[in-house]
Amino acid sequence: MRERLLIPVLGLGQIVAFASSYYLLGVLADPVAADFRMRPATVFSALSAAFLLSALITPAAGRAIERFGGQLVQAFAHAAFATALVIISTAINSEMLWAGITLLGVGMGTGLYGTAFAIVVERRGADARRGITAVSLIGALGGGLGWPITKAMSEAGDWRSACLAWAFTHLLICLPMTLLALSPRQSDAKNVTPEGRISWDRPMVQLAALFAGAWFVSTAMGAHLPRILGALGMKASEAAWAAGLMAGCAISARLIDLIWLHRAHPLATVRLACLFHPVGASAALLGGVKFAPLLAVGQGFGNGLLSVASGVLPLKVFGPERYAVRQAMLLTPARYLQAAAPATYAIALDRSTALALTLSGGLCLMMLVLSVGLNRGETTAD
Question: What's the rounded Cα separation, in Å, for the pair 20 and 87?
Answer without folding.
Answer: 13
